[in-house]
Specification:
Layout: E1 4-5, H1 13-16, E2 18-20, E3 23-26, H2 32-42, E4 45-48, H3 57-60, E5 61-63, E6 67-71, H4 76-83, E7 87-91, H5 98-101, E8 102-104, E9 108-111, H6 117-127, E10 130-133, H7 142-145, E11 146-149, E12 152-155, H8 161-168, E13 175-177, E14 191-193, E15 198-201, H9 206-216
Amino acid sequence: MNRTTAFGGDPHIGIFCRVLEEIAVVPPEAPDEFCEALRAALDVEFVRTTIQGSSIVGSLLAGNSRAVVVSGLATPDEVRALEDYREVYRLEGSMNAAGNVILANDHFAAVHPEMEPEVVEAIGSHLGVEVVRLTLGGVKTVGMAGYAMNRGVLLHPRATPKEIGRLEGVTELPIGTGSVNMGSGLVGTGLLANSHGYIAGNATSGFELGRVADVFGFIEGI
């Protein structure tokens, strides 16, 4: 099976899409080739919507099997499109690019270290998980410096033992470090995964794919 794809020629597939186990939220103009690759690798149902009128859905939406968190600038129509699948929490204020500032799965959420305490509490309540504030490899936009799914967590290769330890305090899932797209530590920008499988940007090397498979427990490899 092909484990790489691109979004209209762009290997940064995590910027344009957010996979939440059985659903993949994609912009309406998502190329057929991209969607077919995701369907084959991840066995997902597609939810087609923009977020705040933008196609960078992955940067503006985070969530898990219970709820999604979206930019507070999401329109009523965009929120309604998501409400058919998940409870929706709108992230107000200046730090509203939810996919950039939140790393989440069904076990925990990690958020930008400067996020307001009341917002952290609200995110935890809606997602039904414990939330920690931290950086990953010194990067504050943890939603793109890591990728969390229900089989494991892949982090920026410069994530420190202290940062990893913080996550180990809130989850027993395997945690490892890696990269995508020929050395990018912002693994969230180039990776999509769920319990069925994984797929990365088409600039990702075989070695990088092997690391993803190892951390997420897909022993069939690449």
